């Protein structure tokens, strides 16, 4: 499914890369800007720029922190910030439109990530830094980043070639798709699953804001005559409500009800993640053997 690109890619990318400019969370994205119609043109432009920059880095390897590690880190931060923000929103404010946009650009993102983790030129450059005289002059944190980056590339098949490398890349793409489907099932099930309470005496200990949300959910579910004192209360089976009930509800039966509902997500008809898990385990085993 393709998401129609109705706005300028440069403008979309600039909008999605803007940071909030107030308070102690000024480093965060402007979440309201992440509309589905912006994601595809913005992400594709960013991926184009990142692919070009990575090609430049590969072609002009400079075995130093400033010449190799710094530009790689900057590029990875930009990619993770934009596409990671989309993934985060899908987990907390799901929409079919945003999911379709993410699905359209995700294969390119995974392909670029594979290319970056399996680049022999970059790997050799990192090893040269580690084994060179300048390594001892790096700050401890940078030494750690470098050695862990080398280890990560080794675990990502940087030494593979030919058919094993191609198969590794296929597995990575499939695992990305399966992981995406797994999360989508959980989020979609949240829209339907409820812990319903009709007796206000059972709610002792639960914070008032959580109760207010449960009342509003009952109204959205179409319940007539919702009353602040008499309910009913419809708790969406998500992390916020689960933590509130498990940690603060006085009634043990309600805590158990919330526990069972939350822990059984991904097993109901239409949202069953167990077949996905089985395939993921098989693929991870094959990847480990490669």
Account of the protein in words:
The chain has helices at 9-16, 36-59, 65-92, 96-117, 120-131, 140-155, 162-190, 208-220, 239-248, 252-263, 274-289; strands at residues 194-197, 233-236. The two termini are 33 Å apart. The protein is 66% helix and 3% strand. The chain has a two-stranded antiparallel ribbon with strand order 1-2. α2 (36-59) runs parallel beside α4 (96-117) and α5 runs antiparallel to α6. It is elongated. With 290 residues, the chain is an all-alpha fold.
Low-confidence stretches: none
Order of helices and strands: HHHHHHHEHEHHH
Largest sheet: 2 strands, antiparallel
The end-to-end distance, rounded to whole angstroms, is: 33 Å
Determine the fraction of residues in helical runs and give it as a percent range: 55-70%
Strand content: under 5%
Q: Round the mean pLDDT to the nearest integer and report it.
A: 91
Number of helical stretches of at least 4 residues: 11
Silhouette: elongated
Give the structural class: mainly alpha
Descriptive key words:
290 residues; mainly alpha; two-stranded antiparallel sheet; 3% strand
Topology:
Blueprint: H1 9-16, H2 36-59, H3 65-92, H4 96-117, H5 120-131, H6 140-155, H7 162-190, E1 194-197, H8 208-220, E2 233-236, H9 239-248, H10 252-263, H11 274-289
Antiparallel strand pairs: 1-2
Helix pairs in contact: 1-2, 2-3, 2-4, 3-4, 4-7, 5-6, 7-11, 9-10
Task: Write a brief structural summary.
The chain has 290 residues and is mainly α. Helix content is 66%, strand content 3%.
